[in-house]
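Action item from last week, closing it out:
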Amino acid sequence: MTLLYGGDIRMYRTFCGADGNNAYLLGGLCPWLTLESIIIDAPLHPEGVLGDTRDTTVMAVLITHQYEDHWEGLPAIKAHTGAPVGMHERDIAGVPFSPDFTVDDDAVVHADSIKLRIFHTSGHTLGSVCFWFPGIFLPEIPCTREAQEKAGPRRYDGDTREYHPETLHAS
């Protein structure tokens, strides 16, 4: 577990599975509330991220896209946390499970003080999504809004919609 961000929220990254994929745990910092968290991605061998959840209530597991290396640890995470699973509807046909809810562009998932905004970033897969909280843009490594703007779009499926970084705003 590596603490990547400790500002308004806690964000940890854990490497999981044979492919060394990342699982992220985001938790709020409101001591007067029960600490709630969100898991992003569920690679194989998620024991590390599950250990990180011991002091939190996982409110959601969000899957970035349909490729197996991002969800193959989901049965263990779901059994351990009971949290609902969300992903974009355009990737549901590519997975052997039914998510509990779907996420789409500009949706917001809440846990404690976290308001995690969803961005549909079709490219890697038709239903790929990224997540944004002020100062953080996932699944890219955490970065500032300015760094993400400089990096520009990453589209691989012929989608020619323009990338508008000015749409990255807090609610």
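Closing note: The first helix runs from residue 47 to 52.
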